[in-house]
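Team,

Forwarding the record for the chain on the shared tracking sheet. I've put the sequence and predicted structure together so nobody has to dig through attachments.
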Amino acid sequence: MTGPAAVVRPVGEHALLVELADTAEVTALYGWLRARQASGGLPPVGEIVPAARTVLLDGVADVDALARVLRAARPGPASAASGPLVEVPTVYDGADLPEVARLWGVSPEAAVRIHAEPEYVVAFCGFAPGFGYLTGLPARYGVPRRATPRSSVPAGSVALAGPYTGIYPHPSPGGWQLLGRTALPLWDAARTPPALLAPGTRVRFTPLRGDTP
């Protein structure tokens, strides 16, 4: 939601950067922009890229016209919940699940229920191709990163850090708290688009039992 707290800045000759108060405002504005773009109600723009507290609009044909639209925009929370839904079958057997449960003051079983209950939204992507930063977990359940990052985290690991949930699309180093794992391919170079999770995508985690997701 743009307004007094939002700042719209030119970036070069054909881009604008909107600075917002938090990730929730970024997600709402991104959803609103994509809906306006799909309906033909947005001045031409090549790319819309959300981040933690900014939205970059690149390839802008008429910077002044788009800036006026952005300064008048008043998207609400409903704008964030309009993307496609992806179900993520998850085995909650992560190495850090007991520690996360301890930080939350609940049993591991209750921690699984807490994490699987919300519907998440991909707020933005980064860190690695196909890695989405998912919001939706209530703020009181945010946890710190591990004091010592792991040298390798398996692909498909479902993890938590701060206010975000993420799924590692590739094996990589990482310091997020590991809750579980999924066999769902997050990145496939032969797929169009290669990334399963894009900004605005809604996500639900479905707990599974057994040795494999």
